[in-house]
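Appendix B, Record 12. Input sequence as logged:
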Amino acid sequence: MSEDVRYIQDDQPEGVPPLELTGERTLPDVPEENYWYRRHVAVYEWIAERCRGLRVVDLASGEGYGADLLAGAAAEVVGVDANPEAYEHSRRRYTRHNLSFRRGLVEEFDDAVDAVVFLQTIEHIHEPERLLAQIATIAPVAYISTPNRLTLAGPDAEKSENPWHIVEYDIGQYRRLLAPHFASVEVLGLFHARKLKVHETAIKLGWDPFHRATRLTKPFYDRFIPAISASDFVLRECGDGDLDGALDFVAICRSGRG
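Logged structural output:
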């Protein structure tokens, strides 16, 4: 994201303060951010189907769209976020009867729930082990995701340039982080599908030099990025060798309680 350009949410409902894209959280209603937003929505939608009728907390709920998606299936959802602007935005924008938001640190949430959802945030946490131990005490199952360091930063980098990330994990590191705190951990990988898979293949065949040489870059991506949908991503089970190529890891962590 260029330092000279500010991206702010478009067309918010009356009385809802728009949020600015800073890189700390993903936002809907910012066309340039649509790839990352839909990448997150794909996982939220998958989890929502597994949370029908449950009491759920969405830790680090950010703008609130994920908690709102979960509330379309769950019996009750609480979104927790420490950022005052995100909290104010989410509580005004998303007003389902079974959805509420709290401003607070994720480490301080200790209500008993049926499921914890904690997506794309463990890499931001200074003491992830302490938080994971807390999560294991409040719910029988937790859905915890993180970007794959190998595909985000590259195989030779310790981490990406995202200033909000403290640690980024490969699959082996991620399993070692989670395993001590849960009775079982299953990890799925998020991958490109449909038109994003075609685009990925085109890049391997030399698309990048072609569109730069023909000056198609901006007009193409001005149309392509806003057209991306959640169905252009797929979650699947695979071995750790294949998980090395995943975009994100989505862990299903069971505490053995409840």
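The chain has one domain: 31-254.
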